[in-house]
Amino acid sequence: MINVDICIIGAGSGGLSVAAGAAQMGAKVVLVEQGEMGGDCLNTGCVPSKSMLAAGHMAQNIRQAASFGVQAVEPKTDWAAVHRHIHEVIGSIAPNDSQQRFEDMGVTVIRAAGQFEDRQTLRAGDQLIRAKYFVLATGSSPFVPPFAGLDQVSYFTNENIFDNREEVEHLIVIGGGPIAMEMAQAHLRLGARVTVMKKSRLLIKDDPELSSIVITCLQKEGMEFHEGGHDLTVERTDDGKVAVRHTTDECSQSVIGSHLLIATGRRANVNGLGLEAAGVAYSEKGVGVDARLRTSNKRIFAIGDVAGPYQFTHMAAYQAGIVIRNMLFKLPAKVDYSAVPWVTYTDPELAQVGMTEADAEQVGTDIRVLRWSFDENDRAQAEKRIEGLVKVITTPRGVILGAGIAGLHAGELIQPWVLAISQKMKIGAMASMIAPYPTLAEVNKRIAGSFYTEKLFSQRIQRLVKLLLKF
Ligand SMILES: Cc1cc2nc3c(=O)[nH]c(=O)nc-3n(C[C@H](O)[C@H](O)[C@H](O)COP(=O)(O)OP(=O)(O)OC[C@H]3O[C@@H](n4cnc5c(N)ncnc54)[C@H](O)[C@@H]3O)c2cc1C
Fold first, then answer.
1. At a CB cut-off of 8 Å and minimum separation 6, what does 23 contact?
2. Residue 97 CB less than 6 A away from ligand 1
3. Alpha helices in 27-76 (DSSP H)
4. What is the DSSP string of 371-423?
5. Of the candidates 392, 388, 372, which has an alpha carbon nearest to the alpha carbon of residue 380?
6. How sure is the predictor about 372, in pLDDT bands with cuts at 50, 70 and 90?
7. Which end of the chain is less packed: N or C, by CB atoms within 10 Å?
């Protein structure tokens, strides 16, 4: 029997953050991992997807060079080399998440599946672990609906798409969330034909005014969309391709592609953990937690994708900080989700933090909605990237409630808004900042300034200025 202060199940974004923090603060820590160190983010999520997108963006730059006066060619993709690039990037980050690094910090790493025997004991392989606190950080897996015929075809999910080395001629993507759209664009830019099939609105969690900018750009690049279909069935054709059929209100349609990607959401990893024995309440949606991230067994915390409500690496890391404060310092630290950012890394990117316009309308808050278009930005003009919009929601007195951006580098541009919302800043702070010229980030200052435009250029101010100039 191993007796420790903290036992963490899952060595992904959440589990590793708790392990590193707790061990370096002097706690005795065991980390249990059944698969690869680094979890989804490093191996089958953020890192490979952004690396693949980077390859796609490179191809697109070559394609578009002519409009900058540089000879353009149609780039030829070496799919095996793209695979190599993706795995080189994973390899360059992997040491940060490695068993060796964590053992050097004093963490005991056990490579086995963890399962609770009772409320205080976990079995991992042939080891029994007793801990003062447990942290469930087991993540999530792709949710694959039981489409008729799926057992007859091979298909990609995020778990195997980054293992592909062969040319993708025509990728059919089922799903319309961030993972689906990122993978669709990466393949499109690498030279594949791409068809996206989605039952409801694409990028449904984002402001439709902003997501439509991204979707229009993807369409212009050649992505094909089939929206609103239902009763989806899948079939293998005689020549080894895959046919996806769906029915719309008008007719039944079939798309034939060389490869299929299913990106229809995530399912929390709650099975096989012995949660009943541990007295941890859970559902299909994940493990239930309170604002301190304690489960129904107060000695067991849950963080990251298995707990939700946001399934992002930065959320798992944020939640890790909350449970460390609760476990090690006995502070009743609670989560605050008022300034959670998220980004879809298509090009243009789509970023959001805080309330959208629809959120504000739903809670009935009195709001002002500000808009600023990228075509007013000189740097966007120089880069020929004028498709984009910033949208900011404030109270009538200028307290910032939310911001959304669709445009080049939106994920970078959203950051000052995250700070502003988390610090409850007013829009005047953003308006009075000096922004270097010419940067895309000037859009943030300009939209903030627009809050005052009406007042500043009013007849009352004009009369006041005239009066003052007389002296
Ligand atoms: C394609 C894709 C792209 C993404 N891109 C982004 C992005 O750009 N930005 C972003 O913020 N987020 C992104 N995400 C989401 C991000 O990867 C997750 O939110 C994050 O990895 C969650 O961390 P976690 O610690 O909760 O789970 P994970 O990182 O998945 O780690 C869970 C670990 O627990 C282990 N485990 C499970 N059960 C057991 C058990 N019984 N015993 C022992 N070990 C167990 C698993 O093997 C795994 O290693 C992406 C996800 C995908 C799929």
1. 29, 102, 105, 106, 107
2. no
3. 39-43, 46-63
4. EEEGGG-HHHHHTT----EEEEEE-TT-BEEEEEEEETTHHHHTHHHHHHHHT
5. 388
6. very high
7. C
Q: Does the beta carbon of 414 lie inside 6 Å of ligand 1?
A: no
Q: Tokens 């750009």 belong to which residue? A: 217
**Terminal-to-terminal C-alpha distance of the chain:** 87
Give whole-number Cα distances, 166 to 66, 84, 174, 192, 282, in Å.
Answer: 29, 12, 20, 11, 40
Handedness of CA 396, 401, 402, 403 (dihedral sign): positive
Instruction: Please say whether the beta carbons of 29 and 22 come within 8 A.
Output: yes
Confidence category of residue 454, pLDDT binned at 50, 70, 90: confident
**pLDDT tens by residue, 30-78:** 999 999 999 999 999 999 999 999 999 999 999 999 999 999 999 999 9
**What is the C-alpha separation between 215 and 202, in angstroms, rounded?**
8
CB burial string 385-414: b at 16+ within 10 A, e below: bebbbbbbbbeeebebbbbbbbbbbbeebb
CA distances from 7 to 11, 107, 168, 257 (A): 11, 10, 43, 46
Please tell me the number of Cα atoms within 13 Å of 348 on its side-chain side: 29
Burial, 29: exposed, middle or buried (Cβ in 10 Å; 0-12, 13-18, 19+)?
Answer: buried
**Spatial contact of 351 and 404, defined as CB atoms under 8 Å apart:** yes
Q: What is the pLDDT of residues 66-99, one digit of tens each?
A: 999 999 999 999 999 999 999 999 999 999 999 9
Q: Please name the residues in contact with 71: beta carbons below 8 A apart, sequence gap of 6 or more.
A: 65
Degrees, nearest 5: CA angle 24-29-32: 125
248: amino acid identity, one letter: T
- Pick from 13, 270, 352 the residue to mutate for probing ligand 1's pocket: most ligand atoms within 8 Å of its CB: 13
CA-nearest residue for atom 37, ligand 1, is 138
Q: What's the Cα-to-Cα distance from 459 to each of 398, 463, 470, rounded to whole Å?
A: 22, 6, 17
Among residues 241, 69, 259, 289, the alpha carbon closest in space to that of 166 is found at 259
Contact 264, 144 (CB under 8 A): yes
- Centroid of ligand 1 to alpha carbon of 420 (angstroms): 28
